[in-house]
Amino acid sequence: MPALYALYVVNKSGGLIYYKEFVPIASLQLNDTLRLASIWHSLHAIAAQLSPAQGCTGIDLLLTETFDLHCFQTLTGTKFLLVVEPKTPEVSELLRTTIYELYTDYVLKNPFYEIEMPIRCELFDQNLFATIGGIHRRWGIAQP
């Protein structure tokens, strides 16, 4: 059964500015999430530089036996990482449209939000959880 586990938002400097778990997967502490974000940022940048393919911007997908990590990098360098159950359908589309639209509507249009700073926006949280909850209900996944 597909599931969406967690969302990370990493700024263009590699700092973690947002993290939310949708389905508990592991007991990650704050330092673990910060480390994961900075390591991914570094790997993403190295992959873009080492790739023989023209126009490569970095790693978009990491597949493992227990999870898939999808990455969407915006033109400004902000990265959205979504950790999901392996073989979850339409994750790239979800990141590029739905989650990114929520980010632009509720975070970037918030007059009190400063770019590159941690995201603390209640409307973004509410709408993100409503969207993910709707997807999970459609797939028959129990919410915590």
UniProtKB/TrEMBL annotation:
UniProt xrefs under Pfam families: Sybindin
One cellular component (GO) term of this entry: Golgi apparatus
Domain of life: Eukaryota
Keywords: Endoplasmic reticulum, ER-Golgi transport, Golgi apparatus, Transport
Subcellular localization(s) per the UniProt record: Endoplasmic reticulum; Golgi apparatus, cis-Golgi network; Golgi apparatus
SUPFAM superfamilies associated with the record: SNARE-like
Main location: endoplasmic reticulum
SMART domains for the chain: Sybindin
Entry similarity comment: Belongs to the TRAPP small subunits family. TRAPPC4 subfamily.
Quaternary structure, from the entry: Part of the multisubunit transport protein particle (TRAPP) complex.
UniProt protein name: Trafficking protein particle complex subunit
Lineage, highest ranks first: Eukaryota, Viridiplantae, Chlorophyta, core chlorophytes, Trebouxiophyceae
